[in-house]
Amino acid sequence: MQLTVIWMKVLVTGAAGFIGSHTAEKLQKAGMEVMGIDNFSPYYDITLKRQNADILKDLGVEIVEVDLRDKERLLQIPINFDFIIHFAAHPGLSAKSTFDDYYTNNVLGTRNLINFAELNKDLKHFIYISTSSVYGLKVDFPETTPPNPASDYGSTKLEGEELIMKEVELGSMKASILRLFSVYGPRERPDKLYTRLISCGLNNEVFRIFEGSEKHSRSFTYVGDIVKGIYQAVLRYDKINGEIINLGAREEYKTLDGIALVEELLGKQIKIEVISKRNGDQLATSANIGKAIEWLEYNPSTTLKEGLKKQIDWYKNLRV
């Protein structure tokens, strides 16, 4: 079913990041007016975020540097948005990150954004970008399964979900939650699996892998397929108020499968070193996407090999 794209004004938080930048680009190219905000956190090389921001600026997207924890600065943003898509978060599993990093960004920042959203009287919908990490260490569940997060990242993202759902129940905001599964592709963060793997392969460096994680399995999902799902959610906003929807790929691969594919595409073997196990790492994720297929006509179609080829091409042209 084809839906007509109408003009909309959209605020994308975390717009200079990996998935946020792709989403902002998609919406702008679709004819919507997009503003992106980002705090340009030094969690990883800010140069990469600046490059993403420049791509968006060239398309006409306004990028504003805002930390969601700063209430006063946030209130300087216009309050005339039709949609807010909330990516901004302190991500992943990092020994350098404290619980305060996760809590202030993912919970307090989200609370501030909700308060801001409620000032936007014509706001049609708020989309909260969540994660499969809220489910726990092993994931193949539908959205009705009670969450059981095993990391500070997962637990604080779940708290963000609960804040959103409370507002929906109160009738003060229309919103939905999208839980993403193992996204990869061009612009992926440098600390993530495939960017690290590709970097090591091209630069003849040792790839360090956490003990046991080579056997972990994932629904690795190409970023372009994720963005299509988010776009479909925007177009169908009036049907998904109060809903939680998984977005991911149908296929499941072990980390070793991914390593082998990158080696095949690079035409070389990558040196591997096993290091101490990392707590909180998910053991297996298999995206249960029946609801997304039904409600969003979601159809992830990029194979892991196709997606990795695109990510390698991107990395080879990366300016760092």
Key attributes of the depicted protein:
single chain, 320 residues, alpha/beta, Rossmann fold, seven-stranded parallel β-sheet, two-stranded parallel sheet, 10 helices, 18% strand
Q: Which runs of at least 5 residues are low in confidence (pLDDT < 50)?
A: none
Distance between the termini: 42 Å
**What share of the residues lie within helices?**
25-40%
- Which fold name corresponds to the CATH topology? Rossmann fold
**Rounded mean pLDDT score:** 93
Give the count of helical stretches.
10
What CATH architecture would you give? 3-Layer(aba) Sandwich
Q: What is the rounded Rg?
A: 19 Å
The helix/strand order is EHEHEHEHEEHEEHEEEHEEHEEHH
What does this structure look like?
By secondary structure, this protein is α/β, with parallel strands linked by helices. Helix content is 38%, strand content 18%. The chain has a seven-stranded parallel beta sheet, sandwiched between helices. Helix 1 links the parallel strand 1 and strand 2. Helix 1 (18-29) packs across helix 7 (223-235), helix 4 (99-117) packs parallel to helix 5 and helix 6 (193-202) runs parallel beside helix 8 (255-266). The radius of gyration is 19 Å and the shape is globular.
